[in-house]
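Weekly sync notes, structure subgroup
Attendees: PM, AL, DS (notes)

Item 1: joint prediction request from the bench team. They want all two components modeled as one assembly rather than separately. Inputs as received:
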Amino acid sequence: MREIRAEQITEAVARLSMEANFELEDDVQKAIEEAFEKEESPAGKEVLRQILENSQIARTERMPICQDTGYAVVFAELGQDLHIVGGDFEAAVNEGVRSGYTEGYLRKSVLSDPIKGANTGDNTPAIVHLRIVPGDTLKLWIVPKGGGSENMSKIAMMKPADGVEGVKRFVVDCVRTASGNPCPPVVVGVGIGGTFEYCAYLAKKALLRMIGSTHPDSYYAELEKELLELVNDTGVGPMGLGGRVTALSVNIEAAPRHIASFPVSVNMNCHAARHKMVEL
Amino acid sequence: MAEHKLTTPLSEEDVRKLEAGDTVSLTGVVYTARDAAHKRLVELLEAGKELPIPLEGQLIYYVGPAPTPPGKVIGSAGPTTSYRMDPYSPILLEHGLRGMIGKGARSEPVVEAMKKYGAVYFAATGGAAALISRSIVSAEVIAYEDLGAEAIRKLEVKDFPLIVAQDSSGGNVYEEGQKQYAR
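Output from the run, pasted for the record:
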């Protein structure tokens, strides 16, 4: 059986936590450059110009793109023929977060308890979504998630009768009422189906997709395109100041559902849509 | 849309002439505070006690900066979302606060207090935090050090680029701008 050491996981998480926060991923960078060309509103264009200048400074000076360096959300796909040796998986991930957030001068934004808690001081614990899959590798996605956009996320237990039109209304309404708060142009993660908690997970998972990639199911690829147009027609624009570009992408994840339930969720991501992936 | 160069502290007259959509280049001292610090400030005001910062003519910037790397004045320092401070802002405005810097729209009670006392709400670009840190020439924690990133800092800024998001007569760049581009 193939083996990896727990410290390799720690090292990867630490490195990717920093890289995700310093370097806008190529797909996001390109999407913002295109948005800058497309934007008609002078205020919106100025916002996009500042975002691009900021990206350059963050990259060259190794400073965080945004001061909110996020809750460390980690998606992992662990091949069932891979053996992790020399430590626990979750402890290794948390050690990576601790070391990356300290070494990179990233902000520590996690409270130990939602009501009684104080800052944990090292941005741990990470939120880990682990799946066991065939194979002998470990895929890790690091998604540092900011609070401003997370707060504008929603879930609805719709009626099956609401159908796809209900989905469209919910998503567009979510973006419109969020207005400038989630730092548009946003990436909109949409979960459709599953159960209550799985639907929210799907919306988060949708944020891992590369901007510009299309959904493998042509029905959802079309729906993503239509939703992106509808969302951009709200006029919210960069930072809510009004404009043509409100979202860079709408990404859908769909799943089977109960005959009685029709959950739909929206997980907003800001324009600093941080995501990094590595395969060990 | 006018362009202004302003230096803090600001007078009521300075602020009354600002209109939603105007751009401002701000220089001078601003104080940082966000959720936890606001809670403490308002508790002090309600108990009739003295605050650790002056309010008269001053601006509060809603920011929790990233830690300061070696050789820098401050870490990345962009605005946080302002509506979370809405429950606390009216009483601060009543006690002389002249303006706030953040991102995203403010609620009606804040707008009413801004109109009544002559105050302004500026928006900075969210997520342009490394760029904004270049406008900050000095930074010093002056209260609530235990709050870490949420401590109150005295910042000296130079040519900090802002937009007047909501003005002292009810003008609102979010409503006006979005209406213009909605289809």
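Discussion: The longest strand of chain A covers residues 247-257.
Action: AL to compare against the crosslinking data before next sync.
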